[in-house]
Amino acid sequence: MIYGEEKLKKNLVLFTFLAAVSILLLFLDNRGWLGFKSVLQAPFLALEKPLYSARLSVTGFWGFVYGWPARELEMEQLRAQLAKVNVDQKTLNECLAENNHIKKLLGASLPARWQFLEAKVIGADGKLHLDRGTKDGVTAGMNVVYEKILIGRVEIANSDDAVVELINQKDLIIPVKVNDAKTTRARGLLTGQGDNRLLLDKVLQEERISKDDWVVTSGEEGWLPDLLIGRIDEIEEDKAALYQRATVLPLTDLKRLEMVFVVIKD
Fold first, then answer.
1. Are residues 253 and 201 in the same domain?
2. Are residues 49 and 123 in the same domain?
3. How many angstroms separate the CA atoms of 226 and 266, rounded?
4. CA 174 to CA 224: how far, in whole Å?
5. Rounded to an integer, what distance in angstroms lies between the CA atom of residue 250 and that of residue 232?
6. Structurally, how many domains does the chain consist of?
7. Which CATH number characterizes residue 134's domain?
8. Which pLDDT tens digit goes with each residue over 77-101?
9. Does residue 192 contact residue 198 with C-beta atoms inside 8 Å?
10. What's the pTM?
11. Are 248 and 231 in contact (CB under 8 A)?
12. Per residue in 142-162, pLDDT tens?
């Protein structure tokens, strides 16, 4: 930095000296006193290039100094515009995701009288925490779905948020039907086992169930009817038992949900 300042000072001295000499020669030439002008021209023409370079150096330095605030302001504006673009892109992605969920929900064969309220998942700790509450019409006991798949039901409804108990919650009992591609083949009770595990129980031995049969709600005890829950995975073989039992795999990963729908009217 010191070397640069010294160079700048030397350039300023040279520029001042040459400017004074140029004014003097111009005065003498106008008076006709420079008969030997051509002799003096050569060295000054040789100095013209460094003089021009010195002038550019000086003007460039001061231009940089005086133009710094304007450039800093321009950089701040560009940073603000970039931040806004990032926010807009994030909002657009969220809207596209919401529209995709809504499109899938509308494509599901659910009763036309049902009304849905979309809700974002704002937390998960074994239960889902939603950004909707009583001010949005949510009350305890309402069923929560993703497309046509049952997720759980509202356990607690606060003013601005709600807590949902999931279908895999231990000791949560759901009356269900077991369907093949065409008909209902059996009835039973579904209980949560934690994680992503469900247990189908209380199915009479004379009723026939098979691997990959659909498990859906039967519409009793506050649960809406014909909502998908999962598929039968393994059937316990015990002919001496009074009831059949089977493990059921949920149709969606309950830990990865970002948006669900609360059925607010049916």
1. yes
2. no
3. 13
4. 10
5. 9
6. 2
7. 2.40.10.340
8. 777 777 776 666 665 555 445 545 4
9. yes
10. 0.60
11. yes
12. 999 988 899 999 999 999 999
